[in-house]
Design brief:
Blueprint (H helix, E strand, L loop, with lengths): L12 H25 L3 E7 L5 H9 L7 E5 L5 H4 L5 H4 L8 E5 L8 H4 L5 H20 L3 E8 L2 H12 L10 H8 L1 H15 L6 E5 L3 H32 L26 H25 L3 E7 L5 H9 L7 E5 L9 H4 L5 H4 L8 E5 L8 H5 L4 H20 L3 E8 L2 H13 L9 H6 L3 H15 L6 E5 L3 H27 L1
Parallel strand pairs: 1-3, 1-4, 2-3, 4-5, 6-8, 6-9, 7-8, 9-10
């Protein structure tokens, strides 16, 4: 594919200046329009070393309002990045609504540079491509504009630029042994890049090949690509809004999950106080040993708690953390079920705030409420569209698969109680001065939506319980039983993962 690209394309200085002036004005207008429409934009610069990414980024940003964009230079993977799934550092850099993020190199290093350097193993490659495609689709589905530019130069041109950089003390550091190695084996690296372009060129995130031998020509093509795409997306979205106003979507009731998984849960299960204390003590002692083993083996752990109001999530979390080293454990409280995401969270992809909190290798993250708010709270309370929450099941499964592929233990709990038990606990909280802060008028109002929430939970459990991230339903009417089952489940998951990792490393 790339060998057919004409790298001799150029533009004279006079035409370059004229075209730049026209497109600079247009790009500034389009940036302001995207800001007004609250549309986030990602622009990826990728391609061959010495292709001119830095120069072209500088040219692109000249007409832009500097308050409306950021540039992220993705260089060698550091210790912090190596201890997390490879998409983590890019998820955390995705722009908020109305802003632009320009990536100097990107997540594509995983399937090109790292592949060439044999840091990405052959058996990891297909999974990495799937992760990249799902990542970009999730961003695009959320309304983000993705523009991907591949700067292409020949082997000889690259060699010439490397030598020129090495002639100056100020620029010599930019050329590494790895750069020269890829130049020497240019054809192999070219094939890897061609495969990447073919496998990741999609309608929602297409690649543009930039003939980068002539820097002025490259600048013009980049500017025209960016302006054309922004203009197209702005017009398309305006038309969709107009059509949507005339033809509103029809919302159909879904009764398939009305009587589902939760209806078969046995809430009579219980433990005596003596049984509870004995089993709790043993399990917490096991956790004291296991967390050290997890740390040494660099295994991350993600534990998510969901459940009804007053189901006992907090109590279960306290008993769980009592047996784990606080230095490697974080509890992340997520907003109450009736709260919408805050102002910062609202202007990002809904998964952004959870990606930020994902644990590094050997550490444990415990979420008191999770990303499943998208298909429960936000669904029921109308904080997102029907299309948004219906799409979220797959997006969540893909996120959890990415974490699992990195080697994480993923444990998810739904703590279940019946409506009568919830009412009893609500009244108990109101009568106890030390617990009154736990109960609000909103908690009582939410009980009126019990049936709608139950249906949503049933659907969530069916659609997002996977082999790599299964749901565990906790029979929660008895707090003693619930707390012990939580700890048992976590211990079993940790032990299984440790055995698996040790077996692979033999």
């Amino acid at each position: 594919m790339l060998e057919k690209v004409d790298l001799n394309k150029s533009v004279d200085k006079e035409n370059y200046k004229k075209l730049r002036e026209e497109m600079d004005v247009k790009l500034g207008e389009l940036q302001r329009a995207c800001k007004a429409e609250k549309i986030p934009v990602v622009i990826v610069f990728d391609g061959f070393g010495a292709g001119g990414k830095g120069t072209q980024i500088n040219r692109l940003i000249q007409p832009l309002d500097p308050r409306g964009f950021d540039v992220y230079a993705s260089r060698e993977t550091g210790e912090e990045e190596r201890m997390r799934p490879f998409l983590w550092r890019y998820w955390t850099k995705t722009p908020e609504d109305g802003r632009m993020m320009i990536f100097d190199k990107s997540w594509y290093d995983k399937v090109t540079v790292d592949r060439f350097d044999k840091e990405t193993k052959r058996q990891e490659l297909n999974g990495a491509f799937r992760d990249i495609l799902s990542f970009e689709k999730q961003l695009a589905d959320s309304g983000m504009i993705l523009i991907k530019l591949f700067l292409y130069i020949s082997r000889d041109e690259q060699k010439k630029r490397f030598k020129r950089l090495e002639e100056s003390k100020e620029t010599a550091w930019r050329v590494t042994e790895a750069d020269w190695k890829r130049n020497k084996d240019y054809d192999t690296f070219l094939e890897m890049n061609e495969e990447m372009l073919q496998r990741t060129d999609t309608g929602y995130a297409p690649w543009t090949i930039v003939e980068a031998t002539d820097k002025n020509y490259a600048a013009v093509k980049i500017l025209s690509t960016v302006t054309d795409r922004l203009e197209y997306e702005l017009n398309r979205r305006r038309m969709e809004r107009e059509e949507g106003a005339v033809h509103p979507p029809v919302k159909l009731p879904d009764e398939r999950f009305k009587n589902g998984v939760l209806s078969g849960v046995d809430l009579t299960k219980t433990l005596t106080r003596e049984e509870y204390k004995e089993r709790l003590d043993k399990l917490q002692k096991k956790l004291e040993v296991l967390h050290g083993e997890l740390y040494r083996l660099r295994i991350p752990v993600v534990i998510g708690f969901e459940g009804w109001d007053a189901a006992g999530k907090g109590g279960a979390i306290r008993r769980l953390t009592a047996g784990i080293d606080a230095r490697i454990t974080r509890v992340i409280p997520v907003s109450a079920p009736t709260d919408a995401p805050n102002d910062v969270e609202k202007v990002h992809h809904y998964l952004w705030r959870f990606w930020r909190e994902m644990p590094k290798a050997g550490h444990i993250a415990i979420f008191d409420r999770t990303w499943y708010g998208r298909v429960m709270v936000e669904r029921i309370e109308g904080f997102c569209s029907e299309a948004d929450w219906k799409r979220a099941y797959q997006e969540i499964n893909e996120m959890e698969e990415h974490m699992a592929n990195f080697g994480a233990v993923i444990v998810k709990f739904w703590i279940h109680i019946d409506k009568d038990e919830q009412e009893r606990r609500f009244k108990e909280r109101m009568e106890a001065p030390a617990k009154q802060w736990k109960i609000t008028d909103e908690d009582w109002r939410n009980r009126e939506k019990w049936d709608a929430y139950e249906q949503a939970v049933n659907e969530m459990l069916v659609r997002t319980s996977t082999t790599y991230a299964p749901w565990t339903i906790i029979e929660g009417n008895s707090k003693y039983f619930a707390r012990v089952k939580v700890l048992e489940t976590v211990v079993e998951a940790m032990e299984e993962k440790i055995r698996e990792v040790k077996k692979l490393r033999k």
